[in-house]
Amino acid sequence: MPKVGIIYNDSKPVACQAVLTLGEDLVARGWEVCFATGAGGILGYSSPEKPICHTPIESLVPLGFDAEIAFALVLGGDGTVLSAARQLAPLGVPILTVNLGHMGFLTETDLQLLPRALEKVLAGEYTIESRAMLAVRLYRQTYRLWEALCLNEMVIHREPLTSMCHFEVDIGGHARVDIAADGLIISTPTGSTAYSLSAGGPVIAPDVSVLQLVPICPHSLASRALVFTDSEPIVVYPANPNRLVMVVDGNAGCYVLPEDQVHLERSPYVVRFIRLRPREFFHVLREKLGWGLPHMAKPQTENQG
Predict the structure, then answer these.
(1) 77 in Cβ contact with 106 (< 8 Å)
(2) C-alpha closest to that of 167 among 226, 228, 231
(3) How many domains does the chain divide into?
(4) Chain centre distance of CA 115
(5) Same structural domain for residues 92 and 68?
(6) Nearest to 23 by CA among 41, 35, 36
(7) 78 noted as active-site residue
(8) Residue 72's closest CA among 14, 26, 40?
(9) Active-site residue, from 25, 78, 249, 260
(10) CB 186 within 8 A of CB 151
């Protein structure tokens, strides 16, 4: 019997109802269905009282989900997709993302279009787009205190965000750089359209094998976004006397003390998105973010009416 997984946002009544209907339909077609909520991919926060609070990356795979799953459906918004990515990446399972949120930048189809989309997936009429992920780990001396997979970005800043921090950053074998800013973002190409975009970073096409470092409100005209190959590991040293906060993909994180180190590297795991049509990245930018829209007030040429 073929096997399919469903991960959904159980805080949305529409998702809970859709999952029931979807599960019944798939069972009637002869599929074994496994269910899980996206909450399992939200890691929570460690605290100074309990600094060792990490769940091994591979331990986030939901109960009943295994390599026998042909594909998985994810019902929710971008936050649910980010959580599901951490849950499913170790299995290499292709995922069809269904938008039940607002922006839906990471989703492939909408709920009202799901019946037709599902027919295409069951017929094998789709392609796979792989997206790179980061492995983020916090060390205190030789102890690993916390770790997570990251699809969008890692952010480190002071709590509350009211004053400047200092960071020293090693990128591969290059000379160490010193950055004074309110915080620091290290982003994947997928995350280049998220927080780093708001902080002034460039948009990067998802198939480019790079990472980017973006200072948040830097105190120097020379401290600007840096794009570099994703084959080089990164170590961030908080050259700051105060405790900082690290957040991964906006929903998981931990405290970072002055003696800690944050290690980042491209993960061997990727997210495998099911695409029902050719993924035209500029079209997505235009549709979701308004990038490159025609300027209605631009002057006409002599050949135009």
Answers:
(1) no
(2) 226
(3) 2
(4) 26
(5) yes
(6) 35
(7) yes
(8) 26
(9) 78
(10) no
